[in-house]
Every structure is written in structure tokens, then in C-alpha cells.
């Protein structure tokens, strides 16, 4: 469906990961070996938090319907800013049209959300799912994607108080609604959520065959293992990235996130825990 990455750590130019690695996000937009689609050219988006922004400050965003490899503004922008936490996404449209309001990440207040995957038979479920969204949130749904509806459902179910529980409750609501239509295997995906301080990255599907997801290994360990790799020494000790597929071929650099798991990164901790695991 799509490819994405999320970074948390010391302030970094987003271009370092989006453009400059061997298998960068832009490279994956042209050729994604692990993706459901090889080419992801139906628009892209970047959302980032300022390096000196106060807690609770809304992130900035840039969306375009251009293919990521074709947009000169993407290179200019990602080289001009530094951010301690940013999300980036390249899109392969399934059914919703190619338009800026359908590009990820999505924003609500100081929260960002993005998704790779889909909700099966969303056109049949769309009305019921949208009616379950808090009426105060409903006007903020600007596009036509299942991902944006799921995000607002998660906010409705308490994502801002507890992101893991909020997204979990939203997904269970989708599955229950789909059961009423006789739709099986409805949720497929990997998801990223952030409030500007913490990053939550989820891998989950109803049938346990989710899209790929990886997190980077501990940076200090990598730098010690590969002392002559100059690119690794551009990163700070707290740097971590979560990606749809590895950004390099360096052995040990990326670790696969298990099924039904959430990876949590904040300035003081990194851990994984089960997510909706039966």
C-alpha cells in the first residue's frame, strides 16, 4: 500500500533518512522490495516537530500529490530543517483519489498519525464508522481515506489520553462493525502515532499477517560495531527509526517488529509490548 518512516532522537535533518540512505524513503517510493506495491508514487507527506518547540506545540506538515522522487521542494525542505521527531510517508493509492487531503501523516492538535495498509471493503463500512466519530471531530475529516477515519475514531476512543488503548479500541470497533457486514480480515496495517515527545509504532492485522515493520538497533551498539562507518556517527546516542523496510543493508542495523506489537520510543526509554494479542 505505502511506505513510511518515523524518527525520534537528537535533532536531525529529515533528508538524512528520507533522501540520503541507500534504501531511503524516496528510493522505496520508486522500488519497494518488501512492499505490497513496488512503486509508491501517489503523493507523499512529512510531519515534523520543531527542535525548540514547547510541549504541545502542533507539528508542521508538508503534503504533495507529486511523486516523492519528482518533488524538488522535498529536498529543499528536508535539508533546511532539523527535528527531534518526524514522520514521513509515500503513498500508493488503493481506491481513494490522489489529493493532498488524502496524504499522510494526518494531524489533530499536536498529534500525528500515519498508516500503511487498509480497512477491507471500506466503502461498505465508511458510513457506520464515520457516524461513530465524535461529532466535534467529524468536521476535521477532510479527506476520503480509511486511515483518516481510523485516526479520528482512535481520538474518539481516547488516543490522546492513552494512545495504545485508544487505537486498540478503535480497531476493535472496526472489527466489530465489519463482523456485522460479514466482512472478515478487515484490518491490515502498520501505524505510527506521536504527540511530539513519544512515538508509538504498531504492527497489527486481524489475521496476523501484517505489512512489514522494523526498528533500528541501539545506536551506541551500532557505532561500536562499525567504528569506521561515518554515516552512523552522524546520529546521536538516542537516535531510533521505525520503518516499513530497512534503510540499509548493514547487518544488524534493523530488527523486525513482531506481529501484534507496539514499539514505544520516548526520550528516556525504548521498549516493545503486545498489542491486541489474543
From TrEMBL:
Keyword Transferase: no
UniProt keywords, alphabetically: Glutamine amidotransferase
Protein name: Class II glutamine amidotransferase
CDD domains xref list: YafJ
Domain Glutamine amidotransferase type-2: 2-278
Species in which this protein is naturally found: Microbacterium alkaliflavum
SUPFAM superfamilies: N-terminal nucleophile aminohydrolases (Ntn hydrolases) (SSF56235)
Alphabetized InterPro entries for the sequence: EgtC-like, Gamma-glu_amide_hydrolase, GATase_2_dom, Ntn_hydrolases_N
Record lineage: Bacteria, Bacillati, Actinomycetota, Actinomycetes, Micrococcales
